[in-house]
Amino acid sequence: GVATCSTTALSVASHTITATYSGDGNFNAGTAGTLTQLVSTQSPTLTLTSSANPDSLPAQPTLTATLTTTGTPTTQPSGTITFFDGGTAVCTEVAVSSDAATCTPTLAAGTHSLTASYSGDGNFAGSTSTTVTQSMVHSNTTTAVTSPTGSSFSYGTPDVLNVAVSSSGGTPDGTVTLADGGTNITGCVSLTLASGAASCSPILANGAHTIVATYSGATS
Hints:
The protein is mainly beta.
C-alpha cells in the first residue's frame, strides 16, 4: 500500500506536495493532503591548491579553487570565486566553470596566506577554503666577469671588463659593481644591467689585480 518518489527536481524554495492515487477495480481514486517540503541551499566544499609551492620568482603559481557538492544535484554551482592573499584580493570574482576557477596572482618574495571565497548562487551557499601557505623565493643567480683582452694588457690602455648575470628564473635586472682587491673601481660602480649584462673600461695601475663583480639582487 506504499509508493515512494525520490527527486532532485525541486528548486531551493518551499514546495507544497500532494499525491494522487489512480484507484483500481476495488479502490476509489484519491488525493492526499498537502505536505510542505523545504529545500535549502547546499554548502559545497571549496578546496584551494597551488601549482608550485614553493615557487621561484619571477614565475607565479596557478591557484585553483574547486567546489565539491554532495549527492547528484541537477545543476552545478555557478557564481564567482575571489582569491585572497591575507585580506587583499589578488583575483576578483572569477567565474566558476566546471566546478572550479583559477587565478595567477602577482606575489612578492616571502610567505603568503592564500584563501578563496565562493559567492554562492540560487542553489548553493557561499563557502570559504582553508588557508594555503604559499612560499615565494628569489631565483639564484650566477655572476661572471671577463675581459676580451684576456688576463694581460698594457698599462695606460683602458681594459674592457664585461659582467654577465644569469639565472634559470629569467634575465636579471638591477646593478653590478666591480671591485679591485676589495676597493670599488671608479666608473664601475652600480652599473645598470641590460639583458643581464654590463661593462666598464677602467685604466688600472701596473701590477696584478683581483677583479670581483657583485650583483645587487632585484625584485625576483
